[in-house]
Amino acid sequence: MATRPLNVGLIGGGGGAFIVHPHERAIHFDGTRRVVAGALHPDPAFAMQEAADWPYPIRGYPSYDELIAAEAKKPVGERIDYALIVTPNHVHFDPAMKCLAAGIPVFCEKPLTVTLAEANQLVAAVEHRKIPFGVAHTYLGHWTSRFARFIVRSGLLGDVRWVDAYYLQGWLADRTEDKGVMQAEWRVDPKRAGASCCGGDIGTHALMQLRYVTGLEVKRVRAQLETFVAGRQLDDHFTAYCELHNGGRALVRASQIAIGHKNDLGIEVNGTKGSLVWVQEEPEKLIIRLPGQPDRVYWRGAVAANDGFLKDLPAELMAEPNIPAGHPEAFHDAFARLHRCFEQDVRAYLDHQPFHCDGSQYANVEDGRMGIAFIAAAVRSHEQGGAWVEMS
Amino acid sequence: MATRPLNVGLIGGGGGAFIVHPHERAIHFDGTRRVVAGALHPDPAFAMQEAADWPYPIRGYPSYDELIAAEAKKPVGERIDYALIVTPNHVHFDPAMKCLAAGIPVFCEKPLTVTLAEANQLVAAVEHRKIPFGVAHTYLGHWTSRFARFIVRSGLLGDVRWVDAYYLQGWLADRTEDKGVMQAEWRVDPKRAGASCCGGDIGTHALMQLRYVTGLEVKRVRAQLETFVAGRQLDDHFTAYCELHNGGRALVRASQIAIGHKNDLGIEVNGTKGSLVWVQEEPEKLIIRLPGQPDRVYWRGAVAANDGFLKDLPAELMAEPNIPAGHPEAFHDAFARLHRCFEQDVRAYLDHQPFHCDGSQYANVEDGRMGIAFIAAAVRSHEQGGAWVEMS
Amino acid sequence: MATRPLNVGLIGGGGGAFIVHPHERAIHFDGTRRVVAGALHPDPAFAMQEAADWPYPIRGYPSYDELIAAEAKKPVGERIDYALIVTPNHVHFDPAMKCLAAGIPVFCEKPLTVTLAEANQLVAAVEHRKIPFGVAHTYLGHWTSRFARFIVRSGLLGDVRWVDAYYLQGWLADRTEDKGVMQAEWRVDPKRAGASCCGGDIGTHALMQLRYVTGLEVKRVRAQLETFVAGRQLDDHFTAYCELHNGGRALVRASQIAIGHKNDLGIEVNGTKGSLVWVQEEPEKLIIRLPGQPDRVYWRGAVAANDGFLKDLPAELMAEPNIPAGHPEAFHDAFARLHRCFEQDVRAYLDHQPFHCDGSQYANVEDGRMGIAFIAAAVRSHEQGGAWVEMS
Amino acid sequence: MATRPLNVGLIGGGGGAFIVHPHERAIHFDGTRRVVAGALHPDPAFAMQEAADWPYPIRGYPSYDELIAAEAKKPVGERIDYALIVTPNHVHFDPAMKCLAAGIPVFCEKPLTVTLAEANQLVAAVEHRKIPFGVAHTYLGHWTSRFARFIVRSGLLGDVRWVDAYYLQGWLADRTEDKGVMQAEWRVDPKRAGASCCGGDIGTHALMQLRYVTGLEVKRVRAQLETFVAGRQLDDHFTAYCELHNGGRALVRASQIAIGHKNDLGIEVNGTKGSLVWVQEEPEKLIIRLPGQPDRVYWRGAVAANDGFLKDLPAELMAEPNIPAGHPEAFHDAFARLHRCFEQDVRAYLDHQPFHCDGSQYANVEDGRMGIAFIAAAVRSHEQGGAWVEMS
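Above: the input entities. Below: the structure tokens describing the complete assembly.
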């Protein structure tokens, strides 16, 4: 049945930002969401210009304060149904809190905040107000991420012993931040990025993948943060050895100086009975390996609900609207799945129905908080010469 | 600068069709195109119901005749800016001709028609009326397809000697058409699919990839069409040995009974100086191989305009709006690129400006006709025991 | 129990030959075979010099006639136990016939002969004299080749519908034969190589792999032989479309001008129930694909006799003396397996016991003859404009 | 020029040992080395029986003491030219010292000894007596290992920042040692294996690969040793974070509980200008990645001395006796290269010529000692809660 598309308001996204573009396409993807308003830049005049230059007509605002105030006054159906926050890290907390105060659901880029205190406040605010809140851990949107989560939880691999979760890049191998690359500039600046560059920016993705797929939490961590490029204040290489709550161990690794790696996020889960391997750059497949058996390479779209080995794949996984195997889904498809799932929760919220926001389909505010807590613990461990530090 | 989104009218697409969905997402992708109207099914009542069930409000029509008539009367800006034809093969010709007669640009699924006579008429109509006409050879939309085309034309590989172009699937390895799978039913029916199932449905994609990447035309062909599944009237396995206009040779191969192959479209071009390899299921990379040199694996988004080996990559290739390497683009991205390029031509047409429609960015009506001519020649060769048959 | 090593006599192999070296290592591999004599070159003086330069002391002979005559007079234990023929194609027949006449088992390089008449004579001579005769189709020696053969014969893939067997190389993409490369010189010379260069040299390997793995014979063939490099008399690119005895179809393809391909021999077998894929350059694995199931990647050494899917793997396959999975076997291991199996037959022959020589472990003289017959039919088809030609 | 084959004496290798078999084939490989004597087992009667059952006649000895004593009395040419020690770890030191005392060159399995004190003694003895001494770090024998070493030393990758060296296996994921698998039994026994199972057995290979390829030494280490399988006394999972002498960092990782990994040894070297990737299970290739350039995949045998990018490849690398690209070399080829290089040094030693034994072609006694020192430091770090421990 045809329904009106949801209205999305952008906070941030102008001035050459990268991440707004995948969000845009993800918002557009299904035809059931659209951008209607934006406070696209901290400079008011530039923000208005950027809004006027948006590919199609939207309401421009000179600041997010004005956007939130004005939109909150409009009736539902005209006003924005949710806000997308795509500002640098240090400008997540304030607009997110203000949206929540105005009753506007929020989809926020990661890392959630730059301090753990802020993250805790956001968690409290979301719990208090019971408003959908999503965090853009894109890679949970891959069908194979959800399939991996099902596999581990099904017990097929036994108890988890060891996890290798990593995210390796090479784009900061030299002083990219001095070459006018906005993406690099703010990431290496402690004021805008927080206490960690590499760990916070991409290590948190590796952690999120670990937590999502295994359902396990980190108990304590010992970490080494390295800065290989001279003159940089924050880490560009990050290694954390973790103890998990079930007694297992994990490496959470990240690098921005690993030349040749593009967005090499991956996870390997080793259990007492078998292992699985997933890599983001080839998101259509999941490999499962059991002793004395051939490697099983599963392809999205070609997994039967019962193949004599896997059983009882949940209807939700099987019914997923997607394209047939061999016509690959990729980054934008994952992004779109996040917004599609968030849309469902927002529509339920608007209808005063219960909504999930339980972390099973996209990361929620608590997932965001765990990323901040992990980085805080890792930085503390590093400062203490690599000692074990408990997660809080 | 914000501009109004283009309006797209759908002809076909209801009742469980597959291919309409990627088109939908591709239309939505950039926010600058939207579906506003549809004649979604040959059954008028069902067509109206399907339109009412569209994810967002559109104008439903009981038939494409009514859609074309009604839309043509609306002023530009309200009426559809182009029609997308996603009906079965035998219902391409009639609505396409009628759209052209009404001055409406057409983006049509392939194969263009079921007979060569119809294809010739369409070509003539397009030439006469000078209206943008696109054919949905999706895989031209991959950045790597366009990069491959540049590489061959740059002369890096020397003269083309041998091409292997193939499209292998396994989904018709048993009587899928008896299991209520609509996609299979019409494809194996000569009345709806034309003279070839496997060759027409997917062999034409392999041919298109060959023609697009090499710029070479097939001069003559000898072909074997096989029907492995009992009771089927059309081929499910297709092999054509081709002589190219430059004296080179090519295999154009297709199969629908190759279990384990999903949408395994690929091309290898062998020249006097080197070769390239491209496969659709891993569309982010292109491999170039020269004698005495390492294999060069190029990744979309990580290709420099001058890497000391490749030189003078055209600005068009470099400026392509896309996402960074390692965040893979895939099927929907390619689909969207087709509609994005077609949009540019439609906007030029609406502004009474020259438009390209020259086959360099998406397949045009002549490309569609060549597919039909190729299949006609292959069927004739098969009927003559595999004799050489000239392309017409 | 320790036994004396078998004595091998070489016919050919001097003067920069390539193929003698893998044979050498394969002979040495187990410590149970050694080279003791050689007629290494047609030039008598050079032959004697080459023998003196052999890495360890052997008996040199100025000609194979003298080698055969002298060795045949020695008592068993001192004389050569088998001859290895590694001369160019046109010098296989004569020494092979003479060895057989002298009661000396023969292991011969392929192609067996340059004419079908000679091949038929050799087959007759072997049948008449009942002497072990092997042909060096190396790739049968891979464990995975034997495993593939078992899989097809087990019925797991159903009836074979379509086979793609190919061997692609690039080393003759330009006039290698003019650069003093002995390997190239004789291969492109009709007098020394026979009626086909590419088909005879490597197409026969693809055919052998097809026949060994599927157990099916070619019924008739239509072929295209191309010569892409100007001035060459024989084909450097070979394509044969085959009808198999069971009604299935096969492509047997070979190229020597496919730049970037090194020794790209592979086979894909498609049956009514599933398919398998094997490639020589990654000989440790075999991929099996069934509908609705994950791809199964089997690794040599990691295959259980019963993994709940495969059953009843023959003891022979399981007991194979080899190294554990992940310590890859490769070309020399395959070569050594041929000589090891041939050694067993030679020892049985010396003990007046029955020996196998049935083509299940290495190619025999009949396999060699089939290669010659295939090329003869393909050449005939080519001469008749690609008409169907029956195998004889 | 033909020369007499070198005589090898085996110490250990009987009773179902695994590693003796690759050594055997490596000794046989070229025809210029052979096994002539053996003390194959600690049980004298069994040792004699095993010698009698050797595939070909050799001199059996009831103990290595007797072997060394008897062989040392024979004249050169009759006596063993070198000893191969393939006993469990704790039986390396004593026979090695005794061989050295008798003037017999030694090729010894790794790890060199079970204590650092012993290793130091062996180093001193070798230096004192100036006798060739090799340690069986097999993977240095791969052509690509040597090529990787050349690449790093050529400066192409700039200064080394970060190395990931790992060796992952899954065969000890459950209590393999209770199932009568001799290989597992002694490895998990502190008395026979030393202070570390996983680190000592395979972590040392990862370390050796790091040291060989980069030429860098570990300065200090912090390590975590885990025992995942209940009841085991030694580690089955090993993670060491290392500081290198040049200021770079490295992970040296090993696991024996990583199901699905067979012998997954690999190394990635990241420098300021580029990176390289090598994996043992695909030993034919080396990948080099530079910013803004395609991945370069180099294949053994297909590397030109000057491809316009690499320059001045040493003659030694180019002249390497091997088989053409695409006919893969693998484990036995690498093993054979070690013995072939050691043979050259032994022949020089016998001729009273200088010999190399400098670690450039195979590991020497100092390399062996570094492995022991590394494990000692790692175990100490682990005992101190993961503190930094300097290498000694």
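Note for the figure: Chain D has two domains: 6-139+336-364, 147-327+372-383.
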